[in-house]
Structure formats: structure tokens, C-alpha cells
Amino acid sequence: MAKSVKYTCPGIIKIATKAINYRDSQTMLDFTDDMIKYRGGPRSIQFIGICMGRCGIPTRVLGSVYGSYLTFASLDNKASAPGQLTVKELKEAERLLQLNA
User: Fold this and answer.
1) Contacts for 7 with CB less than 8 Å, ≥ 6 apart
2) If DSSP codes are grouped into helix, strand and coil, which group holds residue 45?
3) pLDDT (tens digit, 9 = 90+) per residue, 6-61?
4) Position 101 in a domain
5) Count H helices, E strands: the chain?
């Protein structure tokens, strides 16, 4: 007798890639925006889209504008991924762009 398999939906989906150029970051931001629209808005499954590397920094700073659930930053200069900013750098970039005004 076959066992019944129960499938559950994840609460958060994260896709992380490496950006070779800044166009890659824009592609990820557009994909993040599309995921938000596709899944019916911010109250269903949460989505995180991040690109690593220097060219991926825009996804870390602007991700929330496009609907990304969160971003990652280090407390000191010990990044856990290439292109990861410190909390101080991220807050300064957000301030300069007036993202949390």
C-alpha cells in the first residue's frame, strides 16, 4: 500500500544568483516584481531575490522597492556572500536614496 504524501508550501522562497553585470541585477529586480504580482501580493508566500557580487549590490539596496521580503547585511566587515554590504552601508544607501523616508 502506497503511503500518502503531504506537500506543504514554503513560507519563503529565496533565489540568489551572481550578477555578471548590472543588467543581471535589473533582471532579478524585475523577476522579484513579477513574483509579487504572480503570487497575488505580499500576503502569500514571501520571496527574496538577491544577486551576489559587486554588480548585485542594487538587488540588496533596492530589493524592498520591488517587493523582496528582506535583504542580508553583515554587522561588521565579515560578509557571508560576495557583494554583501554592512548594516551601516545599507542604511546609508537607503538614506541617500530616501527609501525609508
Assistant:
1) none
2) coil
3) 777 778 899 999 999 999 999 999 999 998 887 665 556 789 999 999 999 999 99
4) no
5) 3, 2
Measure the CA–CA gap between 79 and 82, rounded to whole angstroms.
7
What's phi and psi for 66, nearest 5 deg? -95, 0
Q: Which of 36, 73, 34, 75 is nearest to 57 (CA)?
A: 73
How many distinct structural domains can be found in the chain?
Answer: 1
CATH number at residue 79: 3.20.20.70
Among 62, 65, 87, CA closest to 77: 87
- 90 lies in some domain: yes
Name 93's Cβ contacts closer than 8 Å, sequence gap at least 6: 61, 85
Q: Is residue 5 part of a domain?
A: no
Range of the domain at 81: 12-96
